[in-house]
Amino acid sequence: MKYQLRHTTRYGYSGAVTLSHNEARLQPRELPWQQSRQMRLEISPLPARLRARRDFFGNHVSYFSIQELHTSLEVIATSRITTSSRPQPDPARPTPWETAANIGAPGKLQAPPTAVADELEARLFRLDSDFIRQDPALANYARDSFTARRPLVEAVLAFNQQLFTEFAYDPEHTTIATPILDVLQSRRGVCQDFAHLAIGCLRSLGLAARYVSGYLETLPPPGKPKLQGVDATHAWLAVFIPGWGWLEIDPTNGSLPDQRYIILGWGRDFADVTPLKGVMHGGGNDHPEVAVDVIPLCEDDQ
Predict the structure, then answer these.
(1) Is the bond preceding 45 in cis, omega lying within 30 degrees of 0?
(2) Per-residue confidence (pLDDT) for residue 298, from 0 to 100
(3) Residue 286: which pLDDT band, with cuts at 50, 70 and 90?
(4) Cβ neighbours of residue 137 under 8 Å, at least 6 residues apart?
């Protein structure tokens, strides 16, 4: 699949801003099944400084500072993306989930020598993070799918469906600060809530799971044109399968991410992959307006 991607963020301030420092994570990752080209970042007002780097997790980060007086900020990221099919593990892989949870844990099983680097990376994603804390209630909820000796991949796929069928999508019910235990109790939330909750459940069982930020192509109703700016960022997660790699799941839609999913970045939770954040002197009432377009292209489009 080929896509034209456009992500626009606008801030309007009630007072003048004298100085702002910002970080943008708006460039899609390069992966075996995802290639990005013609990436452009347009910033208004023009920044005094702009530099690029990669963060601890390998995500693309653009740092910029605006040192002139301004009452608004607009950041537009555009790129062309080509996606292909992701690899998928064999659902019948016999490794019980308990074995995977014990690999690398203190005093437990050690990973095979060929998998040491992958396991060392995965250990970070077993730990608590800003938005996600392990809790017995989370582990207990997940045990409906993670029954004794059940193969890991089979249990993960069942858990994805469990969340999809038992939770309702409700954008009015939660905020960025809603604790995941509240989401568990209410059974309502949005994609970010469901990704955080799923990660919390998996980590509470001893498994490694990471937060994935990106985009999902949305389709208009039959017979209706696709409107501009109606797409949005999306959140899902990936679970570490020892000896294989990271398996992505999307509990919001009860699906496995395919060519319609575009990855911006990943981290321990949303705090690690916020698309745009910063600090400023002055200003006020800076709630952003965000518009996203994920536009399919013909295969011969350049």
Answers:
(1) yes
(2) 78
(3) low
(4) 181, 184
pTM: 0.91
Q: What is the pLDDT of residue 105?
A: 54
Looking at the chain, which residues constitute the CATH 2.60.40.2250 domain(s)?
2-84+274-297
Of the candidates 191, 302, 296, the one whose C-alpha atom is nearest the C-alpha of residue 253 is 191
Distance CA 112, CA 117 (A): 10
Report pLDDT digits (tens) over 188-241: 999 999 999 999 999 999 999 999 999 998 876 676 666 555 577 899 999 999
Residues 6+ apart with CB under 8 A from 146: 97, 155, 159, 205
Name the fold adopted by 2-84+274-297. Immunoglobulin-like (2.60.40)
CB atoms within 10 A of CB 185: 10
**How many CB atoms lie under 10 A from the CB of residue 296?**
13
- Cβ atoms of 176 and 192 within 8 Å: the answer is yes
